[in-house]
Amino acid sequence: MFDKLNNAVASSFIGRYFKLGNSGVPNARSTNFTTELRAGLATFVTMAYIISVNALILSDTGGPCVCNSNTGDLCVNDPDYIACKTIVQRDLITGTAAISCIATAIMGIFANLPLALAPGMGMNAYFTYTVVGFHGSGKIAYETAIAAVFVEGLIFIFLSIIGIRQWMTKLIPTSIKIAIGAGVGFFLTFIGLQRSAGIALISHDPSTIVTLGGCPEQYYNATTGICNGHNMESPTTWLGILGFLIIVTLLLFRVKGSMFLGILFISIVSWFRNSQVTYFPYTEEGNARFDFFKKVVSFHPMEKTLGAMRFDIGTSDVWVALITFLYLDILDTTGTLYSMAKFSGFLDEHGDFEGSTAAFICDALSISIGSIFGTSPVTTFIESGSGITEGGRTGISSLTVSFFFFISLFFAPIFASIPPWASGPALVVIGAMMAKGIKEINWEYIGDAVPSFLTIAIMPLTYNVAYGLIAGIGSYIVINTFVWLIEKLSFGRISLDKSKKDPWGNFSFGPGGEGLAPPWFVPVVYKIRGIERTEKIKESIEIKDVKEQTEINHDVAVDVDGKTE
C-alpha cells in the first residue's frame, strides 16, 4: 500500500540524506519512510508524560516568583504566590514542549539518529528540590540555577568536541555509575509518593520524619505537612493507586504509551467537577484552573520563565550544582546513547557508532537552549527505545517526535490540568525501572558494594542527588585508599583478594589505544600518518592475547592449595 510512497521518498534528497533503505547511498539503513513515521509516533506516545510531569516538578521551585512570607510556611497559603506559581507551571508546559520539539529536531537532522530529547527525569528533581528548593527555599535562586544550566551546556559541548567526556565517564567506578541511576530512581519514587507532586501516600511526622499519609485535604496541615488523622482515607490517594495499577498492568501487556494512557485516564476522571476527586473544586484556585482548562486549544505565551537568567555564578554552591549537573548529564547521556546505539545495531567493532560526536554535541547544545526556556538540563530519553523497537533507525523518527511536541504546544490547557495524583504513579514506576540496574552492582566485593549502597541510600534520605554522589565516591576513595595503605605499610604481609573487584583506572580508549582523542579525530590522525586503524587494532588484540595466555599459564602453575609447583 505504501510501497510507492516509500520508494519515492527513498530516491529523493531526503531519503539519501537520512540513508533510508533503497536510497542507494553507502551504509543505508534497513528502514523506510512509513516505518520511521510509525516509530516516531510510538516514541512520542511513550514519553508525552514529560510535558506535564516536568512542569509540575519544576514549578515547585516557584520559578522567579518571590516569597515574602515570614511565617516559615514557604507561601503555601499565600494566594498571590500560588497564582504566580500557576503561571510558572503553564510557562514550563510551553517551555518543556518547545525545547523537546527543538532538541529532538536537532538530534534528528544533525546526528541522523532515532532519538528523542526532553528535560531529564531525576535531573529536574535535583534542580527543584536540592538546588533551588521548594518555593525557592534552597541556597540558589531559580534565575541563577538556570544560568548555571546554560553554562554547563557550553562546557559539555567543549568536552564532547575534545573527547574529555570519555575520560570523565571512566573516572567513576562502574558500580557507582549503576548506583547513581538506581538512587535517582528511589528519589523519584519518594517524590511520587508525596503530596506536592504525587499521590500523598506519605507525609511528614515530627518523630520519624516520614509516615503513612493519605489523609483528605481538610485533615492536612499545609504548614507542617502533617496529617491530623484519617490516614488513607483520601479519595485522590486511592485514585492515584488505581493509576499506578493501570500503568503497571499496561506495561506488563507491553501496551505502547502505558504511562501516558494511565496518566490520561486518571486525569479525565479528575476533570469532573462534582466529585470527591476533582482537580477543579469550587474554590478560587479551582475555578481559575477550570477557566484555563475550558480553553482546551490555546497557546500559552511564556510570561515569567523565558530567558529568566542571572549570571551570579561566583559562589561555591553554584559551582557544586554546576559540576553535579555536568557529571550527571555526561553519565546519563553516555549510558543512554550507547545503550540505544547497541539496541539499534549501530555499534561498530570499535565500540563506537556513526554520528556519536554529533549526538553528544546536539545533546549538550540542547541543554543550553533549554535553559533559555527555563527548564532543567535536557537529555536523551531511554523511551526512544520504543520507537527503535518499531523499526526506527534514522532522524526521520526524531523529526516525527518533534512534530508531535510542536502540536502539543497548542494544548497547554490540557497538560496544565493533569493533577499530581495522576502523574505521581508514573514517577513511582519510572523509579522502579531506573532501579533495575541494582542487580548489576558488584555485590561480591565489599569495597564496591558499600559505596554503591551509600550512593543509593543517601540520595532519597537527604533529598539530594549531589550528596549521594559525594557519599558514594568519597567512601570509595577512603575505603580503597585505606586498604592500599595497609598493604603498603605491611609490606604485603597483609593483603586482600581483589579478584572480584571491579576494574578501575583503564583510561586507554579504543581498540587501538587512542587515549582521550575523540572518535572523529582518530581516523584523521591515522590518515595523516598513513597508518591503517585495523593495524592498530590487530596489534592491540595480539598484545591482549599474549597477556591472557600469560595469566592462564600462571593459573595452571598454581595447585589447589595455592602453592606454586
From TrEMBL:
Keyword Oxidoreductase: no
Any one Gene Ontology molecular-function term assigned to this protein's record: purine nucleobase transmembrane transporter activity
Bilayer-crossing regions: 97-120, 140-164, 176-193, 238-266, 318-338, 358-382, 394-415, 469-486
Compartment list: Endomembrane system
Listed GO biological process terms: adenine transport; guanine transport
Keywords: Membrane, Transmembrane, Transmembrane helix, Transport
Membrane topology: Multi-pass membrane protein
The UniProt record lists the keyword Manganese: no
A GO CC term attached to the entry: plasma membrane
Pfam families xref list: Xan_ur_permease
Source organism, top-level taxon: Eukaryota
Family the UniProt entry places it in: Belongs to the nucleobase:cation symporter-2 (NCS2) (TC 2.A.40) family. Azg-like subfamily.
Protein name: Permease family-domain-containing protein
